[in-house]
Amino acid sequence: MMMSEGLIQKVAQIPQVDLGHFPTPLEECPRLSEVLGGPRIFMKREDCSGLAFGGNKVRQLTFTLGDAVAQGADTIVHGAASQSNHCRQAAAACGKLGLNCYLRLARDHKSILQGNLLLDNLTGVDVEIVDVPFGPELDVVKYELAKDLEAQGMKPYVVASPRSTALAAVAFTWCIAEIAEQQQQLGIDADWIYTASVGGTQAGLVLGTKTLEMKMKPFGIAPIVWENKHERLRSAANDAADLLGLDTRVADTDIQNTDDYIGQAYGYLTPECIDALKLVAKTEGIFLDPVYTAKAMACLIDHIQQGKFGRDETVIFLHTGGTPALFAYQEELVASL
Ligand SMILES: Cc1ncc(COP(=O)(O)O)c(C=O)c1O
């Protein structure tokens, strides 16, 4: 059986850059647990990962930009939804590493100069809102831009799946090794880890817990509907296993992920997510974000209310960050006061 130190050594062999504050804290939320009459709840604070307001993408970019630098890139091309946390953290990371950065963001209902989009612009990177939807069509825009930049003599690196998802899974395999060590220090052995993800974060949690043969089962709450999500998550986990030189193989049956808390669509609030956001702020002084983590917390609250956990069980909620997006949702949040 592999131990956490062995896994950490495997991770250390992957090209990486130093971006964040790790390990992130793992702290108990006793007031939240008490109010919900639920299991013991701990929060893994990836929102405290340091760079540019933190978030799960700092750990992921440690390897994505490590890959870019190892390949000799001097320019990063990235793009996603207009309030993308990934792009905000990438823009900040590029500044820190001295890389050029181009963001091509899909025009949507939150293409306003607030939250992440405001922060992107403050970093001084090249930001453009484009009239194509977030998804494969946006990837085409990114690759075309990379071709133009290459013709101008730059060495661009495009952040896109499947490579970036596999490297994100490497990052969260490392996070699991970190949690395993923190659990030992705290004298806990969690039953579940809940997180907002339908990508590399969950893939890494699944690969890490399976490799270390932990009791803890990952449960993912999707913020967006992706076709073939099980196949995508399984491939990302197994690609990460190959990158890390692990024998572990992840199967579809290892993956638990729900679409039930998305609501109307990606990036639209649900009444339950607003309630969850306020409850965690009130009981623990911790802010969730409206697009990802509040929906994940709405799921955890629902599962507690359905009686899924015993009082003697322990759940870790992985807080993936995203809090700057709160300010882009000012109108909806004010309406809920
Ligand atoms: C705050 C936040 N939580 C969760 C996620 C989901 O991460 P993953 O790429 O693992 O699906 C993201 C990124 O899209 C995010 O910004």
Could you please describe the fold and organization of this structure?
- The protein is an alpha/beta fold and 337 residues long.
- It has two domains: 4-54 and 164-335, Rossmann fold, CATH 3.40.50.1100; 56-160, Rossmann fold (3-Layer(aba) Sandwich).
- It is 45% helix and 14% strand.
- The protein contains twelve helices and ten strands.
- Strands 1-2-10-7-8-9 form a six-stranded mixed β-sheet, with helices on both faces. A four-stranded parallel β-sheet has the order 5-4-3-6, sandwiched between helices.
- α2 packs across α10 (271-284), α3 packs across α7 and α7 (163-186) packs across α9 (229-244).
- It is globular and about 60 Å long.
- The model has no long low-confidence stretch (mean pLDDT 97).
CATH topology of the largest domain: Rossmann fold
* Amount of helix: 40-55%
Query: What is the CATH class of the largest domain?
Result: Alpha Beta
Count of discrete structural domains? 2
Q: Using the alpha-carbon principal axes, give the shape.
A: globular
Radius of gyration using CA atoms only: 19 Å
Largest sheet: 6 strands, mixed
Bound molecules: pyridoxal-5'-phosphate
Number of helices: 12
User: Strand order within the widest sheet?
Assistant: 1-2-10-7-8-9
- CATH architecture field of the largest domain: 3-Layer(aba) Sandwich
Share of residues in strands:
5-15%
Mean model confidence by pLDDT: 97
Low-confidence stretches: none
